[in-house]
Amino acid sequence: MKITVVGTGYVGLVTGTCFSEVGVDVTCVDIDKKKIENLNKGILPIYEPGLEEMVLRNAQKKRLHFSTSLQESIGGAEVAFIAVGTPPDEDGSADLKYVLGVAADIGKYMQHPLVVVTKSTVPVTTAEKVRNAVQAELDKRGVKIDFYVASNPEFLKEGAAIEDFMKPDRIVVGTDRHEAEEIMRKLYKPFLLNGHPIIFMDIPSAEMTKYAANAMLATKISFMNDVANLCEIMGADVNMVRKGIGSDGRIGPKFIYPGVGYGGSCFPKDVKALIKTAKENKYNMRILNAVEEVNEAQKEVLFNKVRTHFNNNLQGKTFALWGLSFKPKTDDMREAPSLVIIEKLLKAGASVVAYDPVAMHEAQRILGDTISYTTDMYETLNKADALLIVTEWPEFRSPDFKEFEKRMNSKVIFDGRNIFDHKDIKQLGFDYYCIGINTK
């Protein structure tokens, strides 16, 4: 079976590579010539555990190809996935110009029946717009070619995307034609052999499922951060509360870890887009409005603790910062809490020295030389007035605290991810601040 995947960002590259892993002939298309040149050399535009090895293996076996030409790549394909970006507009709505642009190009170049699948996260009614864009180009050409439209939202966690794709909790496909359903069932058959379910539904329901899933997970995070802030005020320990409620099967232990707010490419964008979609249809998503408000405020919590400890005077202070990506196992810094914290520290007159295992190049692209960078986590501590832990990378969990004493100006830690036991750290003589526990 042959497919085309348009877009070599996070979703497109993972999708195309994983399909090639089960024997599908895949061509990934992107208009970025440099990106395609690099991919053909085995240089990936993103960091994702296990992805580089899989790309190299399948490219070597001639199952995975990269091209800048949709016209050349779409010939013989049974399915064309649209996996380009849908960045938020200023009003929070999803910008569909790239999706619809690809749909129009498909209509220009297709020569045989095709299933056109939206893999990008898109609001309800997008598939119909894609259908109209393809048909408009066919009409311009004066040709009649059957095509079908489907929605196949992705549910990939950055840092675990390969596992999520190869062993999915569920595969959701929205379509309104039996022919498209049969082709999609055939395509996904290798992933169903171990009992992973494929759920077929109407297209609007599939489009809504993606947004609803991310909005629910974002709600759990913001709710837990609100609870954490109240725990700190009331003298409760949020870690104990989390264990207590996480043991309830109706709630579960996932996505109830307190911290400095959610970020990344999905939750912030999708929550905003769902709120905007509701507003356009004269409905107010009151809970999601609060979720977004709590999350934005939570990104400032760690900075506020820093400011309070130093009596509102951060001028000339130096802060070590561990973790720049929005979560571990990714170099993604979109909507990362670290960006808010760094901006506020710099604005207050402080200096920042940062370390992240994989996100350093991305940070330099975004922040330039406004902060300093080190290639070793302990080097950030040299002459630092405090350490801020922003991303919970595993290598931060058991550090050598003797290095802290040797290098730092003062023994102060602001832990935005609660990776240490506050009692242990206090016994070592540190001033220690975390989320949801009053450590004073």
Can you walk me through this structure?
- Helix 5 links the parallel strand 4 (79-82) and strand 5.
- This protein is 44% helix and 14% strand.
- Helix 5 (97-109) packs parallel to helix 6 (126-141), helix 9 crosses helix 12 (286-298) and helix 11 (267-280) packs antiparallel against helix 12 (286-298).
- It is elongated.
- The protein has three domains: 2-201, Rossmann fold (3-Layer(aba) Sandwich); 211-297, N-(1-d-carboxylethyl)-l-norvaline Dehydrogenase, domain 2 (Orthogonal Bundle); 299-433, NAD(P)-binding Rossmann-like Domain (Rossmann fold), CATH 3.40.50.720.
- The protein contains 17 helices and 14 strands.
- The chain has helices at 10-21, 33-40, 51-60, 70-73, 97-109, 126-141, 161-166, 178-192, 203-234, 238-246, 267-280, 286-298, 301-309, 337-347, 360-367, 401-407, 422-427; strands at 2-6, 25-29, 64-67, 79-82, 114-118, 147-151, 171-175, 198-201, 318-322, 351-355, 372-373, 386-389, 412-415, 431-433.
- The chain is an alpha/beta fold.
